[in-house]
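Researcher: We're teaching a course module on how sequence relates to structure. For the next exercise, students receive a sequence and then see the predicted structure as tokens, so they can try to spot secondary structure elements on their own. Here is the exercise chain.
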Amino acid sequence: MALDDHIRILSGVKLFAGFTREQLRLLAFGAEAMRLQSGKKLYREEDDADSAYIVTRGRIGLFREHDGQRMEVGTADPGSVLGEMALIADARRLTSAEATTDAEVLRINRSMFRRILEEYPETAEALRNQIIDDLQALIRRIEQVSERL
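Model: And here is the predicted structure for the students to work with:
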């Protein structure tokens, strides 16, 4: 895929909604394009997480393993972001991820992402506000569900 294709894909990702075209270009330029054959693991549960992945083609299955049993958690289709919290905080992977079809992803590493936020503090502030809004919406959904339990 060409740089312009990566920019177009990144522009459709909610996490990067406040980024300018130039910031998206920097992000795309620093991203690593990866191809995965069906059945290839992208990462394992409990791995250190230092990057996020944007699915650009194919499908990635998410699962957890417990007592030798594999429990499917969900799937990620093109445009999905995996592990976005790794861009802003030290974390471990909560699930394993494996290509369920031939797939392509863009790997965005934390240091590149942080460099952009440091150079563009207004973007960092917009991202901070977006994260706060998302967390507040999540809390509201949890509160609604907890009433039924």
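Model: If you want an answer key for the exercise: The radius of gyration is 16 Å. The beta strands are 32-36, 41-43, 48-49, 51-57, 60-66, 69-76, 81-82, 91-92, 96-99, 103-109.
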